[in-house]
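On clarity, I found the account of how folds are encoded harder to follow than it need be. For illustration, here is how one protein appears when written out as sequence plus C-alpha cells.
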Amino acid sequence: MIAPLLLGLLGSLGHCVGMCSAIVILFDRQPLFQNKLAWILAHAGRITSYILLGLLFGLFGQTLWSFERLQAIFSFLFALLAFYMASAFIGWTPSPELILTSLTQRWGRAIRAFRAASLPTSYLLGLLWGFLPCGLVLTALLTAMASANILLGALTMLVFGLATIPSLFAVKWLAGRALTRQWGRALASLAMMLFGFQFAMRGFASLGMVGHFMVGSVMFW
C-alpha cells in the first residue's frame, strides 16, 4: 500500500492542484459547500468512485494474471503507460486528460446539472468527480490492476483517494506556489518511473527472462 499512498500524496501536490483546483473553487463558491459536511460527503463520493473502479480493475487484473503470456504483454503495456505518465507529469508529453477533452466537457455539463442544494447532492457530485478523466487516477488504477486481486484493487484506490485529500483541502494555498507543484510533479514522475520499471521487470519475469523478485511474501516482480 506504500505505492498508492506515495502516488496520492506526491501526485496530488503537482497534478491534482492544477487539475482539480477549478473544481474545488467552483464547489467552494456554491452555498451548499459552505457546510464542511458537504465537503466531507463530496470527498466520500469521490473515493467511493475510486473504490468501485479499483474493484473492477482488481478483478480484471486477477483474471489477467492467471495467464502467463497475457501477463507479460500487459505488464509491458503498463510499463509504457507508466513511463508516458511520468513524462506527462513533468511536461515532456501531453497529459492524457487532453485526449479526453470531449468526455471532460460532458462531465462538466453533468456537474452543472445538479442544482439542488442538499447534502446528498454533494455526495452525488463527489461520485461524478471521481469518474472525471484523470491521468493520475489512471496511474493508480494500473497499480490496482497489478495487485491482481479484487479486494486489494479496491484497497489500493481507497488509500490513493485518502492520500489526495490533504492537497485538495489546501488547494488554494498550494495553487499559488509553483515550487511546491514542481517538486510534487518531479517526485510523482520518479514514482511513476519506478512503477514502470517494476511492470517491465514483471513482464520479463513472466517470460522467464529474469527471476521473480520476492521480499518475504511480497512479489515486486
